[in-house]
Amino acid sequence: MSKTSNLVSALVIACTVALAAPVVALAATGPAPAAVQGHKKHQAKLEAKADKTRVKVGEETKIKGSFADLGGQESVTGGEPVIVQRLQAGVWVDLTTGTCRPNGNFVFSLSFSVRASLSLRVYHPETDLYVGVVSNVIGLVVI
């Protein structure tokens, strides 16, 4: 090999070692302590029900429910996002969004323009404080 090839090879090896050293050092130290990783997300419970199980086209019905912290360490301070979803062709599709009241309760007013048998649920997406959770499935017939 020529002097130039040897020099380039040595340079490539030196750069590789320099870049790999911090990664190897980080891997050797193990995972960061829990205080550095952040707090564990809370488990929650989401319950929902419809005022009526059968409504006419265009008639309003309410979906009422509650969001509760299962950890018991903190009370719900309100403002947690909740989303009403409809099962459509095997996929949950968002219908409307809102937030919980300070006591964890929520109410949605819905009406539908077509006749159908609907499966609805309420979904709370994962946040900084809580894991994602879904309610029971609510059956609603629009006649």
Low-confidence stretches: 23-30, 32-36
Number of domain units = 2
The proportion of residues in beta strands is 35-45%
> What gross morphology would you assign?
elongated
Mean pLDDT: 81
CATH class of the largest domain: Mainly Beta
| CATH homologous superfamily assignment of the largest domain | Immunoglobulins
How many beta-strand runs?
9
Termini Cα gap: 85 Å
Number of helices: 2
Q: Main β-sheet, in a few words?
A: 6 strands, mixed
CATH architecture title of the largest domain: Sandwich
Q: Indicate the percent of residues in helices.
A: 10-25%
Q: Return Rg in Å.
A: 27 Å
Multimer state? single chain
Overview of the structural elements:
This protein has 143 residues and is of the alpha+beta class. It has two domains: 3-30; 44-142, Immunoglobulin-like, CATH 2.60.40. Helix content is 22%, strand content 40%. The chain is built from two helices and nine strands. It has helices spanning 3-29, 34-37; strands at 44-50, 54-55, 61-69, 81-88, 91-99, 105-110, 116-124, 133-134, 138-142. Strands 2, 4, 5, 7, 8 and 9 form a six-stranded mixed sheet that branches. The protein is elongated, with a radius of gyration of 27 Å. It starts with a helix and ends with a strand. Residues 23-30 and 32-36 have low confidence and may be disordered.
